[in-house]
Queue: 2 jobs
Job 1
Amino acid sequence: MKTQVFSWSALSRIIAAIFAGYLFTYAFTAALAQLLPGEPRAAMTIATWPAFVVYPLVILWAFACARVRLVWSGLLVASAALLLIGFWPQLMRAW
Amino acid sequence: MKTQSLTQSMSWLHTWVGLVFGWLLFAIFLTGTLAVFDKEIDVWMRPEAPAHKVDQTKAAQRAMAYLQARYGDASAWNIGLPTERSPDLTISSGEQRRGGPRQYLDPATGEPVAVRDTAGGGHFFRFHFTLNMPRNIGIWLVGFAAIGMLVALFSSLIIHKKFFKEFFTFRPGKGQRSWLDAHNATGVLVLPFHLMITYTGLVIFSLIYMPAAVDALFDGDRQAAFGRGQHEHRGVADVAAVTPAQLTAIGPVLAEAERVMGEIGSLSVSNPGRSDARIEARPVLGNRIELTKGKSMVFDGVSGAVIRQPESNSGAILSQRVIAGLHFAQFGGYPMRWLYFLCSFASCAMIATGLVLFTVKRRRRHDAEGPIAARLYHVAERLNVAVIAGLGLACVGYLWANRLLPVELSGRGGVEVRVFFAIWLLSLVHACCRPYIQAWREQLGLAALMCLLLPLLSSMTLENPWAESIRLYVELTAIACGALWAFCAWRTGQSKARVAPRRQSQTVAQVQ
């Protein structure tokens, strides 16, 4: 039996896991930092800790999820929403 | 991959993440294991430094007398004090980073001693997190590998839901099953350690890897984020008031600093001999659970009064330092260091058995998967030898270079590091040229031999190699590692008898 070593959907999945996964983690951390109460330096430090658990878990999900398109769309939509929360003050100022 | 079950997709991920990052992770973990004892290896690599148990106050007094006589007009003095882990007394003059070269003093007499130039135990420490690459590239690669490690660990938890049962399963001498059992046992046994050490390693550089919070809260302004520039300690002294003045006695200053911060590792004196002199005392890294790097206490150099207490961290910043401290084995002294060393060794064993398992598993189906796959497995086999056995060889070769290179060689420390990489490269060439099993045996055997002969080498190249007991302990540890490698080399030879016929029959089948 010949097992397939390479496929386009696998490549797409890998790129989604690494890059879209990082983007999601970045957005998640920014949003958490913005939402945490208290002194900004403390919020910055605490909000960054979960990132190194979130990123590997997102990568796992990207490979566990049945459909590659769902991986891409899920991560990008969630990232956009979280970035909005994380960079709300900057967006308001730019307005 | 569409119709795969969760376990199947996770085991696919585990295999490939393990393979892609396995070699890099093995190198990071092995050098990290050695870096647990970086100071001790450092002492071993500077055999000329005298070993006297002198209390810190006397050593500091002698160092200051020497500095006063030689560098009385320098803008600053720096003194590295003898500590529990290192008996060396070192001095330098000028500003900390840009100052003159470090000199070694005999703590008993205060006279300078000529100590060989070496890259020291710090080489393993630097390689561990920078891979000797231009600084940030290495840090990013190591961070990426660490995420790979976490992905591999998490996926293994999903694959092995019954991993506690599997932990008690060991079927020795059964080829592939044994490799799998060894991989699972080392994986489960120290799973909390694997998770802790990888996670805390990432947190040390958390704001480099994940600057999202800095960007969101401080618009990416790192200076503001770290609170720098808010409190400059170097107060501008009133120029008119500066007059020549005698330095205060160092004894009470050291005693007070030690009372507040624990064992002191180094002192700096700025503006010695002037009325605006300042003495800064820093604790050794490793007497508190939190990482004490950057912590210090400042005294008036003339009156000896405390000018600045060490910053007391609280809440989030303290927690951050505790997490980082966990990675550095910053607490619990030598028993804790040994525990870290052994757990870390188990991590190396887990990664190594995983890598070997990959190739052992596929050796049987090389031909069934086409020429590209066969080529890939062939390359993986060779890389396994060069990374697992070859890196061990390079590490012990680095220690040999320290003893064998001429002491007067210029840029000696750099040459030692080059020897390390040259041996590693040679091991790759060797692994490609020799038959697979032979390459394993020869490299493991040579590494074992070099470890076992390390005390002999020391006694042949030095007059009194074990004057400092730390040097003896380093060599005893090397002998233990050598014995382990010798056992691996011997076992590899044994399994050859079983593996070889199968390989032969395969090639025969191919020819037919």
Job 2
Amino acid sequence: MDLSFIIIQSLSGLASASSLFIIASGLTIVFGVTRIVNFAHGSLYMLGAYLAVTIVPLLLDVDRSLPMFLLGVLISALIVGVFGALMEIILLRRIYHVPELFQLLATFGVVLIVQDLVIKIWGAVEIPGPRAPSLRHGVFIMDQRFPAYELFLIAAGIVVLAVLWLLMQKTRFGVLIRAATQDREMVAALGVNQAWLFTGTLFLGAFLAGLGGALQIPRVAINTQMDISIITEVFVVTVIGGMGSVPGAFIAALIIGQLQAFGILIFPKITLVLVFLLMAVVLVVKPWGLFGKSDAAAGRAILPEGILSLKRFGTVDNIVAGLAIAVLLALPVFGDNYMVKVGIEVLVLALAAFSLHFLIGVGGIVSFGHAAYFGLGAYAAGLLVTKGGLSMEPSILLAPIIAGAFAALFGYFVVRLSGIYLAMLTLAFAQIVYAVCFQWVEFTGGDNGVVGVWPSSWASSRQVYFCVVLAFTLSAIIALRHAIYAPFGYALRAARDSATRADAIGIDVRRIRWFAFTLSGAAAGLAGGLYSFSKGSIDPTMISIPMSVDFLVMVLLGGIQTVIGPLVGAAAFHSIKDFFMPLTDFWRMFLGASIILMVLVFPRGISGAAASLTDRFKPAPKPAVAPS
Amino acid sequence: MPQNFTRRAVVAGLGATGLAGPAMAQTAASGAPIRIGEINSYSRMAAFALPYRNAIQMAQDEINARGGALGRPLEFVFRDDGSTPGDAVRVAEELVTRENVSFIAGTFLSNVGLAVSDFANQRKIMFLATEPLTDALTMAQGNRYTYRLRPSTFMQTKMLVDAVKARNVRRWGIVAPNYEYGQSAAANFKRLIAEATPGAEIVVEQYPALGRIDAGATVGALAQARPDGIFNVTFGADLTQFVREGNTRGLFERRTVVSLLTGEPEYMIPLGEETPEGWLVTGYPWEQIKDAPHAAFVAAYRAKFNDTPRLGSFLGYVFAYMCRDLIAKAGSVETEALLKTFDDMKFDTISGPVTMRGIDKQATMGAWVGETTLNGKVGAMKNWRFEDGAKYMFTEAEVRAARKG
């Protein structure tokens, strides 16, 4: 490797890093102030690119010059900024009082809607953006040609960093942002107009996302999948840097850019997993990222979310549960094949969602990577049947054991963390599992997966297999429910609500959370094993991020404060999807709108709403979550 | 443009043509339409799938105006597969159970195609995969219910290797998306180039993640190894980014570039004025194909949709007529009758004769191989010729070894 190559390659790395930083800085600022993990940040980036690819050519028609190009980029970013502010005013402002996870869910709804809006407005074909005038050429650096525009991008990243630093240090708005990042309640107590502060922050964050997108148009073809491909990487950058820290995001982007540029020389196939490996290592060593502070150090009191009071089943509940089971039992008798198939999927998803809820609602452990254990169970069962020569019965029993073993391994590191960092570490582990299944072609079949995972002959009819699934999922759900009501569940909730106090009364917090993580992973693994036999194949989409997000949506949709919430959520989510998908190509928009509507109308989820309906006749309960 | 179309709209449309044409008036009396389930990534891969669906609907109208098949109208029932195998298998079940389709067809992604193929095997129903390119579909994981229309990854790679053989390029670099299609194309290329050009070596390989290429770093890594030829498998947004970066940095200058699918309008149109000169590609030079049936198709498509046809449109059109011919010859829509008729059946398509080879259930549909060129501000193909797929199939011995089941 000669010197000129190393320099050119590291400049390429810098250009990527610079683009990444501009986008990530917006996300980190928004998180710092509002504590919202804004899934829609990638959508804002995509909007910026689409707007720029529309606006910039118009301006270039007037005058083909660099200033016109930059003007177009700025206008696009400003429009995206306004969009972000509107999103705050119309949507987010109404849901600051609901649990943080629901805000995340709402932003996910925005992602779905923007995706379909973009297809509707700009079409599905990718659009190549115009090149920047005067920056089309390559500059010779040590006899190698390097794109002038990428030098410009490197400069842009540094300018954004400098402007943000000035803004943060020298303006009142910046001081407020920093103050709110440190202690939001204190800022509120001092009489700062929070509404304006939050709207302004969302404007700034969205502006940066839009700017990042608009600056990409001379390099990439603008396409409808930009949002998803950028959002995970941006999350990684902000988490490695420490959520809320702009300099942290800058350093993290630099590291990732260089690692990417040189990593592919040594391991050309590492592209899928590199950033997640880095994030896992950083989080294991530094639990709050490079520059982040722990929640305790930030002086932030974390309000407990999840199941706050356990209710025993009353007569009415027993009747409802009995009826539900009776309906399920009647399904294979009266339903057609398709209904039975959907029934199997709902049951499987319900178990997976319930196991995730066991972590979130009871343990306070928000996992963004729950699909890993679902997928590990599916892969274990599928590979045991197709490669191991086992039959269905032992494979289904081994699936939760194998998934549980992996959950124990990953959980050992995961439970040391908390909050968003914990969530991101689960995501990193899930991505690593995903990449292994994806790339270990000889063993796992790569992204094509393995087909031929069908039940034993006695269970091959859909109706019989439905009964198998029903038996397994019901027993697992009842067992997990039992664990929630047992002393173990109480200890877990104690650890969630106050780790320090739980520790003081003799609960081994880490260990109990670790057990919970393993148990939940095993239950998800069982669901995965059952799912693989209903689908007949295994493939990496079962482990992918969208799958994890689906589980999360099911839990939140159902409501995290009641025990049976996720069951309702899984059924509702799957039915909505199943209902809209055959009707229209724009089913994601309907799904997104349904989710947002649900968050606005039933901020405690479907079963939460049902509970508050029945509570109306009882003495007023204490508010579940104190308004901010 | 019928983008927001539902099943009801199709039925209504059929009714309308039925009133217009005398042939349909008879069929309307004689019974229910023959339904075919079409599963594809209409929302996620819309750039391919919407032109594809347009052409199918156009062909459906034409076919039904001329009496359909077996005196009954054809009706394609379209479903989105959500681009995941799980969703695809569920909608396949729905089509078979609820919509009562005679067989299923379509799919875009290889893993979706394989999952649906296995479903077809399990439910003993015919599946005609139109777009997925993975060799596994008709080879190692093939089954007696699954057929494929398009030339596979192997066939298209072989066409390109044959075309580049004469240039005797020895030092090769490979850039391919990091998933099955890219990896198997790269593996095919390595194997075929070693046979075609003695002494050929692969000096660099790059596997960027699909949809997330870091083009600068990738181009740098390729240039560093100083290959004389580059085999490219990236497509879509990755391709555009790769080409731009490569153009600015001079990666393609004085190098032979061989590229899969790049000549297809789906991927060529977005390249626009960045279209590189002289790449050897497989593609679809629709505007230059003068054969009468094809020209008539192009004219009808342009008139109906006010848009130029993509490769997807061509494929959808051929596919719809193939369904009609198959059903007409089988004289029934029973699965066993369809399978028996389909094996080794010969079809007349707008690109010439196509045989559905029985041994691996792979059609001998060909592809256009040529060089890219810039025509004003849009890309085009030049010096192209149509390669008959029959010349590029796996040998029967290879098929037998792979399809043991």
